[in-house]
Amino acid sequence: MTQELPFPIAEIPDELSRERGRLLFAGETEFLKGVVAMDGLPPDDRIEVCFAGRSNVGKSSLINALTGRKGLARASNTPGRTQEINFFTAGEEHYLVDLPGYGFANAPVAVVQKWQALLKQYLSGRTNLRRAFVLIDHRHGVKSVDEEIMTLLDKSAVTFQCVLTKADKVKATDREKVLAQVRKALSKHPAAFPEIVVTSSEKGDGLETLRTIIATLV
């Protein structure tokens, strides 16, 4: 993979940085609380990263794989069922934040509107939020609902990084074509961080890189 391309795939970090990532996620990672309104947010006294992705993109599986805790983030087969912002503590200095899956085919309009309002408030008002990770299914690339969340992150001035999931399930013949589509989509968004992380929760691909990125944010 040539690194001259726009939005190159993140390189494997150096040994010292990898160790910081290992140590962060080797410690305790615990569920803190689910939040349904801004007044329920925990204090903004830690470095915070959030994970966003359309329903069934593999977000819960990725969080569980990152932390080595199989049941930490709960997956739901019903899109739009979980309407909470879920906070997890990682060590003593980080929050991991699981945003509900978007793409609400089975959710009432009022529920969607309430969630969207909360999401906008959270993204705009969380001063300790260092990066959002936008998860994209490597088999399908960027969809219109992903464009919506990316545009919201642009408007909120929150740096986001694309994380491709389920890399083990994409056909080798489709890999470059999907990457080209993702790169083209990202180029339209000023808040997009200029590297892509390719992951597989099942195979463990990219997890070490993602842990390191989180651990080295300041």
TrEMBL record:
Cofactor field: Mg(2+)
Keyword annotations from UniProtKB, A to Z: Cell cycle, Cell division, GTP-binding, Magnesium, Metal-binding, Nucleotide-binding, Septation
Record-linked Pfam families: MMR_HSR1
Organism: Mesobacterium hydrothermale
NCBIfam families for the chain: GTPase_YsxC
Family: Belongs to the TRAFAC class TrmE-Era-EngA-EngB-Septin-like GTPase superfamily. EngB GTPase family.
Reported function: Necessary for normal cell division and for the maintenance of normal septation.
Name of the protein in its database record: Probable GTP-binding protein EngB
Segments forming domain EngB-type G: 45-218
